[in-house]
């Protein structure tokens, strides 16, 4: 029999659709209960709980925690809490780690203290450190009291670092060996484990003081002479991190060097933990989502089904900025009302100049923000990049401005109008290049995230600038 495996995305959508159908059936039966004169308890027990809810719970039991998290994020609050109540208690902690911050907040609010303690106690120290900032303080204290001394020390260590530092993300489960033993001894040692920490692609080699000396990849261990000493076959050129390093920089290093795991060492070189590729993938994804939200002017990640007022609070700040910039643009247009009244074609053409300038500026800004995020750009390079982007804007302006100029000449029978269109387009694209380089650079120099609101500011500048350039040139040369 040929088995055709579905794509992960298709399988995820199928699971969501099945859960939604089961919830709809449950709601339908509940509605029938309310409309009929029969004992509610008996009917709910026999029809809802024994059939629909049991089927829904069975479906949830078969899903990966990440898939359940995806489903919870896609459901409105009342259905989300129904599904959450059906999840087995021992899986609560894993799922809370997978859901978005906004949804996690709503789930935690629906749980009592003992449920939260039970969920947290299922997690390792590094996982608990991820969840602890979102838990009530009393819950964290109670969970810490149930940990042994080593786990408590690990948790306190992880909590002492900011969320964006390596120390907050490091995993304490790792395999370490001495350099003066043979490969055969290492293999026997590894066989004593019920299972190796996931993922494990290498073991870490340390000396008597716990100082990192190198790493021994498992693929190298398996093919090495069993009698060979670890110090003779280990790799000594190791990509290692310090706990106070930036997590985003570590994630970029994982991508650059194709790492699966990497050691974390203290100031004296002692091995204190490791980073894993799954954590680094999460860092890259979260940073990407954050940049996308920031460029749209959103303050933070938002629950799709968040209350209206919560969404308003998240969005109002940059909308207020946008309102001010739109008012400035309208006053620029108002200053040229006489020109627009005399040449009506200006009203039809000016949005083209502003729109193309905004798109070009956003392209430049995206390139600069990405370069800053990856550490590829320094402040000293700003002028060089500005000259390059000016050149791009000049060529694009002449090419596409000329095309629009010819079109304007053909539509309105005015060669001077076509020339003004070409000139305005070229100047606005050069303005967009200038703004696109210096806005994110200025924000970075001020210690702010260069992605925050950049697209809003670019659009505002190119709109006002485009209107002013086009209408100003038209007033000077066509009146």
Automatic annotation (TrEMBL):
A Gene Ontology term for the protein's cellular component: plasma membrane
Topology versus the membrane: Multi-pass membrane protein
UniProt keywords, alphabetically: CBS domain, Cell membrane, Magnesium, Membrane, Metal-binding, Transmembrane, Transmembrane helix, Transport
Chief place where the protein resides: membrane
Domain CBS: 234-290
One Pfam family it belongs to: MgtE_N
Record field: transmembrane: 343-361, 393-412, 418-439, 451-478
This protein's record includes keyword Cytoplasm: no
GO molecular function list: magnesium ion transmembrane transporter activity; metal ion binding
InterPro entries for this protein: CBS_dom, CBS_dom_sf, Mg_transptr_MgtE_intracell_dom, MgtE_N_sf, MgtE_transporter, SLC41_membr_dom, SLC41_membr_dom_sf
Family annotation (PROSITE patterns): CBS
Keyword Nucleus assigned: no
Subcellular location: Cell membrane; Membrane
Subunit structure: Homodimer.
Family statement: Belongs to the SLC41A transporter family.
PANTHER family to which the protein is assigned, alphabetical: MAGNESIUM TRANSPORTER MGTE
Annotated function: Acts as a magnesium transporter.
Protein's name according to its UniProt entry: Magnesium transporter MgtE
Native source organism of the sequence: Crenobacter luteus
